[in-house]
Amino acid sequence: MARQLEKSLNAILSKNKYNFKDQTKKDILHALVNFKELIRHDVDTFIDNSGQTKRLACLDGTIPVNYQDTTYNIPIRVWIQLNYPYQPPICYVRPTQNMSVKVSK
Residue 90 pLDDT more than 80? Predict the structure, then answer.
């Protein structure tokens, strides 16, 4: 399984012209091992605030967040930028239909 995952990541990172493939692969593998609920890695089209599109590697799944003695599994998508680690990942919370999001005070 780990070998197949590495092979898949190598293909994704090479095809999409990541500048620091080894470090990016190492960090993605580390995230997938430490956050078991990050279940999907793939490439998708990212649209930035100016409307420009890029093909970026992304991770989907949930991460556990502890709040007031309760653990919530928050659905997220993490986009890995082409110049990672010199550009940070972009992370979005992806609420489900039955989740309510409250504005903090």
Answer: yes
- Do 66 and 1 contact (CB within 8 A), yes or no? no
Distance of CA 21 to the CA centre of its chain: 15
> How far apart are the C-alpha atoms of 25 and 83, rounded to whole Å?
13
SS3 36: coil
Interval 16-56: pLDDT, tens: 889 999 999 999 999 988 988 988 788 999 999 999 999 99
CA–CA gap between residue 28 and residue 11 (Å, rounded): 13
Amino acid at 86: Y
Confidence band (pLDDT; 50, 70, 90) for 1? low
The two tokens of residue 21 are: 């493939």
